[in-house]
Amino acid sequence: MTQRMYLTCALGAILLIGTGALLSSHAAAGPANRGFKPFPDASGEVQTLSVGGALNQQGPFFQAQGTNGRSCVTCHSNRTAWALAPWEVQQRYLQSAGTDPLFRPVDGATCPNDDFSTPGARLSAYRLVLSKGLIRIGLPVPANADFSITAVDTPCSCADTQNVSVYRRPLPATNLRFLTTVMWDGRESPAGNTLNDSLRSQAFDAIMGHEQAATAPSNAVLDSIVAFERSLYTAQVLDHAAGRLEAEGARGGPEPLMQQPFFIGINNLDAQGQPGTPDVFDLYRAWNHSNQPDRQSVARGEAIFNTRPITISGVAGLNDALGLPVILGTCSTCHNTPNVGDHSVPGPLNIGTAAASERTPDLPLFTVQCKDGSTVQTTDLGRALISGRCSDIGKFKGPILRALAARAPYFHNGSAASLNDVLAFYNRRFNLNLSQQETADLVAFLNTL
What we know:
The chain has helices spanning 2-23, 86-96, 119-125, 127-132, 195-208, 219-230, 254-258, 293-307, 319-322, 331-334, 384-387, 419-430, 436-446, and strands at 39-40, 44-50, 135-140, 147-153, 163-168, 232-239, 243-244, 310-313, 326-329, 365-370, 375-378. The protein is an alpha+beta fold.
């Protein structure tokens, strides 16, 4: 009872904070907006532009296609960079008394057979989506898997070792031109698929699963959803400290992003694990000469991202794939797509975000026995639930880094509540030894993306 009362009070506080943010005035949006409304976030303002002109909010993306009242926008909101933010989830819960379409047992709850008989029970059932914006993903262990799940230690009701329940953040439905893999585990991107194929498959599966459709969506519906998603570009446009992100020659915001060159394999790693250029981001280089300290901080953070030496070891999917036990890299070694920050080729990595040592008490812990005799403990098997390979346990794709400030928490499981927590993880994992000033500069830069 105490935990539930605490969470209820916390939800009330978030509602007041979130409502205040939404009602605050942000009139000085600037001519680059082309009439699109920016939305406030913790760091400033985020904005979406569309190559199709005005945002059409009447199409299938915004219309329920299934039986439970959900649509794509239920989990991909414009005001949170087309993702799902806990503050908005909490607001919707309170405003609807838990009846908003997001709150459906199929995957909004920790398990479909949770107790929903009382308000307190419902609050507990939906605790992961409320606290971290996590959706339950149910996946079977592949028939050809070279591993078996021998135990599940979980605070949730779903503890099946064959039909596995994992909990993940919905990825943003924007900036999709730069994707090399659809979904955290790449399950919608089998070899040979085009991006359009993968996005259509994702839309189909979301309608049939998350929206619980009784009949398959038409090709016209799928094509409309994919065309809408592919038209969107989202980025931060205003930073409370640094101001407008196109000022003094900077190139922040979605408009330059729309013009950013990209092809699969751009700036990819060579045989030594080095990208073509480590200077992946050059949005704020002009601010090196600014007289404003906050803009200088952003420029320093960008330079740290590009050049700070990192000794990379033990990253499955990278060190082993290249046959290099140690790679002397930077942040841009893995986040190598220019001015975007995701992987420029498909390639899931295990950097340790699902390791047992990083487990939080609200997530399950799986004990996995591999056929080679090894035992692994993880909070999410990741790519292994698609490939069936023990070597893929804990592997996930690297997401696009634009519009970060609007879509906390971070990582696939929401385990990093803030960008400071993200850097704390990397400090632990790769011994970065960042100073307090370097951490502040990196956070300042990441908040402007």
